[in-house]
Amino acid sequence: MAEGKSFAATDRTLPTRARERARYDEETVHAILDEGYVCHLGFVRDGAPVVLPTLYGRVGNRLYVHGSTGSRPLRMAGGQSADPGLAVCLTVTHVDGLVLAKSAFHHSMNYRSVVVHGTAHQVTDQEEKKAALDALVDHVLPGRAADSRPANAKELAATAVLRLDLREVSAKIRTGGPNDDPEDLALPYWSGVLPVSPSYGAPIPADDLAPGIPAPDYFSAR
C-alpha cells in the first residue's frame, strides 16, 4: 500500500460500539504502532485463548514480533514455506488520559489503539531475519541497531521472529472530556481529564561501562 491509503474495513475490524472512533488510514495506524513498545499477541492453544506481551517492530506494512525458538507461538507458526502459519490477533494501546465524569457510569479513558488480525509466519530467511531484528531494536530506540553489536550465528539460532502483514487492521481513538448526563452537571463532583504520558529519566550507565563512553546523541530524541 502506498502512503495515504487506507485499510479496508472488515467484519472483524468494524467496532460494535462507538464506530465514529474507528480509523483505517495508514498514517494513523502507523503512528500508533510506532509509538508503542509492547504488543499483545493473541492466539488459540489447545482450544483455549492465550495472550502474550512481546516486543515488535514495523517495516512498511509488515510487523515483526520477537520470540524465543522454544516459545509456543513460534513453534505453532512453523518454519516451512508451505506451513499455513498461526492465526493471531495483535493489539497495541496507548492510554492518553483518565476521563473522570460526574457519575461512575460515564468514567472512561482517552486512548489510541490498533488491532491487527492475520496469519503470522516464522521468518526463516536469514537476511530478512537480520533486518527484522534491526527493526525490533530500532523500534525501541531509533539509531540503536547501528550502535550495538549485531547478533552472531549462535544468537540468531536462539532467536525467532514472527512476520505479520498489515492487511486486516483498524485503529480506534477516544479524545475529549466526559460525557455527563445533563441532570448530573450540577452535582458537586470534579470532572475532567487527568492526562497520562510516558516520561524518560536520565540515562543510568552500566556498572561496567568503560570510562569516557558518552551517552548517545539519539537519547535526546526521547
TrEMBL record:
Gene3D superfamilies tied to this protein: Electron Transport, Fmn-binding Protein, Chain A
Family matches, as InterPro entries: Pyridox_Oxase-rel, Split_barrel_FMN-bd
Signal sequence annotation: none
SUPFAM superfamilies tied to this protein: FMN-binding split barrel (SSF50475)
Pfam families for this protein: Pyridox_ox_2
Name of the protein in its database record: Pyridoxamine 5'-phosphate oxidase family protein
Protein's organism: Streptomyces yunnanensis
